[in-house]
Amino acid sequence: MTSLWNMLNKVNPNLFPNGPGFLISYEKSIGQPKIQITYHTIDKEGSEFSTNSDLKHIEMQIERARTMSPGKFSNNKNRPDCFLKMIKNQLLTKEGCGKDVRHLEFEFVSPAVEYEVGDVLEVLPGQNPTAVDAFIRRCNLDPEVFVTVSPVEVENNLLRSHLNAAKFPIKLKSFVELTMDIASASPRRYLFEVMSIFATAQHEKERLQYFASPEGRDDLYQYNQKERRTVLEVLEDFPSVQMPFEWLVQLVPSLKTRAFSISSSPSAHPNQVHLTVNVVSLTTPFKRKRSGLCSSWLSQLDPQQCTYIPVWFHKGSLPPPPPSLPLILIGPGTGCAPFRGFVEERAIQSAADTTAPVMFFFGCQNKENDFLYKDFWLSHSQNNGVLSEAKGGGFYVAFSRDQQQKVYVQHKMREHSQRLWSLLSEGAAVYVAGSSTKMPSDVLSAFEEIISKESGVPKESAVRWLRALERVGKYHVEAWT
């Protein structure tokens, strides 16, 4: 900004009657929070805000909190579609192998939502109660007070608040639990800038101002993003900072739902939803252990305890195929999740009528450690099952670490290029699911090679052929990080 003022001063000195060296105080440059908190005195005895635990009350709490939150929730996600409870929590990977993948089964505890194979379930994760209490204590907040949160707009240079949610107060602790990601997501740079205003210890103020400056950008990246520091950890590292709740609501990252591919067919499991969840865990450069908020929470739920899980259903990138459509499925790792539902559905359809062939390419590291749903796939690939070669399909597994040379799904595809081309020629649809890193592009390249080789056309023609397949809705990819 200093260089800009100096240059503008050279262009037109009249712009700066007091010279270009003027300073706006840091506090004034930050401005006021864009959030207003209204505190309410509510008679808890007999009021509608009393803490009963029925589903309607929980649903109302979630909707109120998320309606008031400044976070942007897509697809009208304030009110959950329904609630589930866990009935099964099964470890799919070998214990101690370094991976933790779970098969989770849920039952509807509120009116069931109709879904199809290929649909996606979004889960609002619960936060660690210890972390929530620590955040409330650290920020000197009253967990029991009732609040409404509303945006403040600038109109004619006057601050004006929209109290559209004023008649729906909620407990401060509930608001934090349901909308503010205090112990998982890393904060943005602006939080450090605002914290520097409220720091009373000089060394903390200087450190925060440095982090917020262009010169401190790299060090902030190392401290914050690389180490995946949470808001709670940042606040604990700067104990002299006491921020008003308005600023915290504005600056703490929103608690987001997490999306999972549904791994069950509603025809095979009425009133149930199944998920295949990889429990995320990693180690930072400074050897801090980090785990995914939602996957860890789900993995620790006990089916014996009735925990209500708020969820939303929506369409994913994998439309349910008709029984007459031949399928080529590629799903390494937890990418197999939606295809478990596809195979269950096709098996039920085949019991009543003739169905088209299904080829499925699965991949994992080791046969003994992470061969997810091994018995399920093998049972459907034998005795004229929907994945059997006798039915025109097939089930092929790439174990990437069981030999010196790494083998991935694309290698298995090339091994069976003739049969793949035969199914494609019959009008098969391709479904790819799994990690969004290299896998989808490697699989696409393998298809280009297979089509070029088996049909005897140049690579460019194979690329055009695949693009045409995409255009007619027969090449689908659902990938995630």
Q: What does this protein structure show overall?
A:
This protein has helices at 2-11, 26-30, 55-68, 129-138, 172-179, 189-198, 202-212, 217-223, 231-237, 245-251, 293-300, 337-352, 374-380, 409-415, 417-425, 439-455, 459-471; strands at residues 35-40, 82-91, 101-108, 120-123, 146-155, 158-161, 170-171, 258-261, 272-278, 281-283, 289-291, 309-314, 327-330, 358-364, 394-399, 429-435, 475-480. The protein has 481 residues and is α+β, with helices and mostly antiparallel strands. The protein folds into 2 domains: 29-43 and 50-316, NADPH-cytochrome p450 Reductase, Chain A, domain 3 (Up-down Bundle), CATH 1.20.990; 327-479, Nucleotide-binding domain of ferredoxin-NADP reductase (FNR) module (Rossmann fold, 3-Layer(aba) Sandwich). A 6-stranded antiparallel β-sheet has the order 8-4-12-2-3-9, with helices on one face. A 5-stranded parallel β-sheet has the order 15-14-13-16-17, sandwiched between helices. The longest helix has 17 residues, at 439-455.
